[in-house]
Structures are given as structure tokens and as C-alpha cells.
Amino acid sequence: MHILPGTDPAPQDYGDTLTPDVCMTQAYNGVAAGSLTRFMGVPWQTDGTSCNSDADYEPSSYLSMPTFWGPRVPDQVFALSDYQRAASLDPAKQGLQATKHFALRSDWLRDVRGRDYYDRLVNMINDWQLLGMVLPVPAPPPHLPADTRAEMGRVVPDHGSYQNDPKYKLVTRIETVDAEAPPAGVALAAEVEEAPPALPSRPRRRFRQGEV
After folding, report:
1. Phi, psi torsion values for 79, nearest 5 degrees
2. Which end of the chain has the least Cβ crowding within 10 Å, N or C?
3. Quick one: 101 exposed, middle or buried, by C-beta within 10 A (0-12, 13-18, 19+)?
4. Dihedral angle computed from the Cα positions of residues 69, 71, 75 and 79, in that order, rounded to the nearest 10 degrees
5. Whole-model pTM?
6. What is the rounded distance in angstroms from the CA atom of residue 184 to the CA atom of residue 182?
7. Residue 35: partners with Cβ closer than 8 Å, 6 or more residues away
8. Residue 89: exposure state from Cβ atoms within 10 A (0-12, 13-18, ≥19)
9. pLDDT one-digit tens code per residue, 52-106
10. Whole-angstrom distance, CA of residue 182 vs CA of residue 172
């Protein structure tokens, strides 16, 4: 195939009539993304959602693992926001929180999944360019793997800065509780609470042969 460079678009105008000659000769004189399936009834972009066997539950066809035909796309991704949280935490003080954020995964189709199969197809046709790509993270911090990869370039709805989200502030506060020292003169409850009195126990009885 004559594959066009990434910067060269595929020809789009083949005249007023799509004749067999145009389809067999001119249509494939330069192959770019989507060229091989451009004349199908549904645009090629929907392959990323329509060929996902794990997207919808049908008892007769459900598979316990995600499978795809044609496109090589992820099922879940390490979102950039989760990477930024994991990278910003001090592993010496907040190691569990850093591990938690590093282990979080988000659905790749979370913004285009829609209500059903057909809604998902339409959303993918219109918004496929908004999806992110999984790419290596440049210079991750030492407490994360050197080959860390995260979803980048995703265009998400603008709901304002996440730092203004009350949930974000609450989680940030919770993550720093263990790092704070108790005020002077305040003892931990476990240190001042007296041990409960031991419960009386009955003496252990021995059974003779034949009693049991």
C-alpha cells in the first residue's frame, strides 16, 4: 500500500459520482488513517467501541475479559490526573495513598460510552478525537516505575479546577492526618484508656472415658 506520511491528508473529493473506477483506482492511491474503511456504512472510528465485547452485558455472548476486533485500544487507562496525584505524594509519609492513586484505572470510553450501543457509536463518531493516548511519562519521580505510562491529551469537560472540588479538599485533608503530630499535652486515647477487666473464666473440666 502507498501509505501517506502522517502530515499528508488522504484525498477526500472524488467528484459528484462515486463510480467503480474511482473506487478501484483513485480511492486507494494514498492510504491514511481511515482510508481502508472510509466507504463503509459506519465510520471506522466506531471500531473502538462497537467491537468491544465487554461494553454491554448479554448472557448469550458475554465474555469475562475485554476483547476487541480490529482496533488496538485500551479498556482501562491510568488517567493523567491519577498519575499527577501519585507523583505529587511523598512516599515516606503517604506511601499507601501514593500506591492507591498509582493503582487507580479509569475507563477509556468514560466520556463517550453513552446510554446504549447506538448512543455509543454516535458519540464515538463525533468525539473520537477527544480521547486520550497512552504514552510514556517523561521523568517520573523515583517512587514510580521508570516506564510509567499514562493517558495524555484527553479533552474532558471543563468543570473548573479540581482543587476547588470539596471532595478533593477532603481527601487531601485525610491524607495528611497521619502525618500530623498531636498537640502538646494531648495523649492518644489508646494511651489513657484503661484495659477492660478480665472476664471470669470457669475452670476447665476434665471428662472421664465414657462421659462424652
Report:
1. -65, 150
2. C
3. buried
4. 180
5. 0.55
6. 6
7. 10, 27, 28
8. buried
9. 665 665 666 556 655 555 456 777 889 998 899 899 888 888 888 888 889 988 8
10. 18
Rounded CA gap, 186 and 154, in Å? Answer: 48
Q: Beta strand 106-107 with 133-136: parallel, antiparallel or unpaired?
A: unpaired
Q: Residue 38: pLDDT above 70?
A: no
Instruction: State residue 159's pLDDT score.
Output: 47
**What single DSSP character describes residue 55?**
S
Residue 113 in grid coordinates:
460510552
Length of the chain measured in residues: 212
Assigned C-alpha cell, 210: 465414657
Maximum pairwise Cα distance, the chain: 105
Q: What is the predicted pLDDT for the residue at 43?
A: 64
Cβ contact 82:148 at 8 Å: no
Question: H/E/C letters for each residue in 60-115?
Answer: CCCCCCCCECCCCCCCEECEHHHHHHHHHCCHHHHHHHHHHHHHCCEECCCCCCCC
Contacts of 179 (CB under 8 A, 6+ apart): 93, 94
Task: Write down the domain spans for the chain.
Answer: 1-39, 75-178
Q: What is the pLDDT of residues 121-171, one digit of tens each?
A: 888 888 888 888 899 999 999 999 999 999 998 886 544 455 566 766 777
Comparing 186 with 98, the larger pLDDT belongs to: 98
